Amino acid sequence: MENIKIKRRLDEQAKVFTLVSNPKYCSVFRFTVVLKEDVNKDILLDSYKQSLEKYKALKVKLKCGLFEYYLEENKNEVLIFEQDKEPTIKKINNKENNDYLIKVVFCKNKIYFDFYHALTDGTTAIRFIKDVVSRYLELKYSNELEKKYLNDNISIIEYDDPYKLSKKYKR
User: Fold this and answer.
1) pLDDT, tens digit, 9 for 90 and up, residues 59-111
2) Which one of 63, 77, 120, 148 is most buried, by most CB atoms within 10 A?
């Protein structure tokens, strides 16, 4: 069976972010999760990988076509980064981050999620983060927590395209 590459076109707003991104304006936004104890790197990596498998629309890399940018599945190794002090928000280095458009950094008891804005909006980012943190807590405290408190009751269909998901929740 051949490997078929699935390409997804960017929506109009995402096209703008790819065009205006430069060293002064990086089109990255961040959410931070603060836990009550220090982060376990291995458990965080496992939960991040599992969540990316669930949210396949976020497991992509940005490619440049003949006339426009598009998103393509990213099969590279998933990475997370540990730092001694709070990281500054800056452009995601594609080579350092294996072409992923989400960068996960942790420092002591904080987890920083940086998203390239052409990939998703805040609504889908928050849902993704909730999934990662829920899986993290479930893996770390599986004997102590009941799964009913960790599930986010979202159907699998909603994970196909983050833009469809954000339209569903518009006011």
Assistant:
1) 998 887 777 777 889 999 999 999 988 888 888 888 999 999 999 999 999 99
2) 120
